[in-house]
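Protocol step 4 of 6: structure prediction from sequence.
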Amino acid sequence: MRILGIDPGLRNLGWGVIESQGSRLSHVANGVCTSDGDDLGERLLSLHNQVTEIIAAYRPDQAAIEQTFVNKDGAGTLKLGQARGVALMTLAQAGLPVGEYAPNRVKKTVVGVGHAAKEQILHMVKLQLPGCLPKNADAADALAIAICHAFYGGTQQRQLKEKRA
């Protein structure tokens, strides 16, 4: 199964693609979609177009995205939510099933602790995906999200949603 992981962001949206064969994981690709400028609509459209190109290039079977967390900056949280919404819409438009994961669950799955630092995530992603060189911390986070989905996808993912409801 090929999994596309997305770490949403308006300025930098990290993405990573992995292959999952049973318990064996391998790196396919990773990168960052960027959007600059003042026009919010154009920036969101740019992210949509870039994610569409990634889906066309790597043809994932499933996708995973990080859930929105609320921070002290309300405007920043809103912008993050808008970028996340565009990513979710693009994944749905491609017909991909999507798993959603809390940041602490991703960190706990990949690192072993729910409040891991960015450096720890990068280190563990490199260990779990030999030969992988993430473009930056956003791409490493996206790969971690994909790894989390490889672990929790399918039946376990449905059970997690049922527990949250």
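Step 5 (inspection) to follow. Helices lie at 40-58, 74-93, 103-110, 118-128, 137-152, 155-164.
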